[in-house]
Amino acid sequence: MAPAELGVEIARRIAAREGVDATALDPPLHAVIDVDALESLVHPRPDERTDFTGVVSFAYGDYTVTVDGTGSVSITPAEDADPNPDRQFEYNPQ
């Protein structure tokens, strides 16, 4: 998956579960996570190197979104998510 498509793919998958168009998501995905930073981590530019092999998970509404080091995306209902992940980071751009 090309870097520019990761945020779009996440938005499409959430929207499909919600039965709405991706442009109608409220809040918009970029208000919940820095999509550019996520894309840079998973799909660095050719002149950058990353050793990222883990996963990034974040909450979006009633879902937990997980992206692994290959760019694979999974969307699960929040109640089905692992309540005790090994590591949990919270992004707060304030």
UniProtKB/TrEMBL annotation:
Name of a matching Pfam family: HalOD1
Region (Disordered): 74-94
InterPro entries: HalOD1
Source organism: Natronococcus amylolyticus DSM 10524
Record's compositionally biased regions (Basic and acidic residues): 84-94
Domain (Halobacterial output) ranges: 6-77
Protein name as it appears in the record: Halobacterial output domain-containing protein
